[in-house]
């Protein structure tokens, strides 16, 4: 019994420490057909289910990012009616921002929402200052493929702002 209580305590501590990371990933994938709360809850459930299997071979943040991104992408694939070009312009429930930062974030979120699921993952990780090697580990891409894709994503987003 004590072991299960320790597991729950460790999980809650981990969740508390990384809730903004999970929220950020979920916010990127929110749309009219993918509710933030549903994505967040499903991600937490998947993290809980995989918590015993985490062996510490990678950073815990890498594992959390990978689980959150995979959960959101799986959600999108499961709900075929989801459209990558639709966004919800709602407040982020777990991320408190000043109003000017929130406006900038919403603009960025709108641009990111127009990207493919993999592009969303790459740019989100890059914005969180993850190294190309960490992004490669999380996404399953090679280091050079991450560099090429990130360059193309930046060009694509730049063209979107010109419209």
Strand portion, in percent? under 5%
Q: What is the tally of beta strands?
A: 0
What is the SS-derived class? mainly alpha
CATH class category label: Mainly Alpha
- Give the helix level as a range of percent: over 70%
Can you tell me the residue ranges where pLDDT is under 50 for at least 5 consecutive residues?
82-98
pLDDT averaged over residues:
81
Q: Which fold does the CATH topology refer to?
A: Rna Polymerase Sigma Factor, Chain: A
Sheet with the most strands? none
Order of helices and strands: HHHHHHH
CATH architecture: Orthogonal Bundle
Which helices and strands appear, and what pairs or packs with what?
Blueprint lengths: L1 H28 L6 H16 L8 H19 L20 H15 L3 H11 L4 H8 L3 H20 L1
What does this structure look like?
- The protein has helices at 2-29, 36-51, 60-78, 99-113, 117-127, 132-139, 143-162.
- The protein has 163 residues and is an all-alpha fold.
- Helix 1 (2-29) packs antiparallel against helix 2 (36-51), helix 2 packs across helix 3 and helix 3 (60-78) crosses helix 6 (132-139).
- The chain contains seven helices and no strands.
- It has a single domain, classed as Orthogonal Bundle (Rna Polymerase Sigma Factor, Chain: A).
- Helices cover 72% and strands 0% of the residues.
């Amino acid at each position: 019994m004590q072991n299960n209580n320790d597991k729950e305590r460790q999980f809650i501590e981990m969740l508390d420490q990384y809730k903004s990371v999970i929220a950020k990933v979920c916010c990127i994938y929110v749309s009219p057909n993918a509710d933030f709360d549903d994505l967040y809850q499903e991600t937490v459930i998947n993290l809980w289910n995989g918590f015993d299997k985490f062996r510490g071979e990678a950073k815990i943040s890498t594992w959390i990012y990978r689980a959150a991104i995979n959960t959101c992408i799986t959600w999108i694939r499961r709900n075929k009616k989801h459209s990558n070009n639709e966004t919800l312009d709602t407040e982020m429930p777990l991320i408190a921002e000043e109003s000017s930062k929130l406006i900038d974030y919403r603009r960025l979120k709108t641009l990111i929402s127009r990207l493919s699921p993999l592009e969303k993952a790459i740019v989100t990780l890059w914005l969180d200052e993850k190294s190309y090697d960490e992004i490669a580990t999380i996404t399953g891409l090679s280091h050079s493929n991450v560099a090429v894709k990130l360059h193309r994503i930046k060009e694509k987003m730049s063209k979107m702002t010109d419209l």
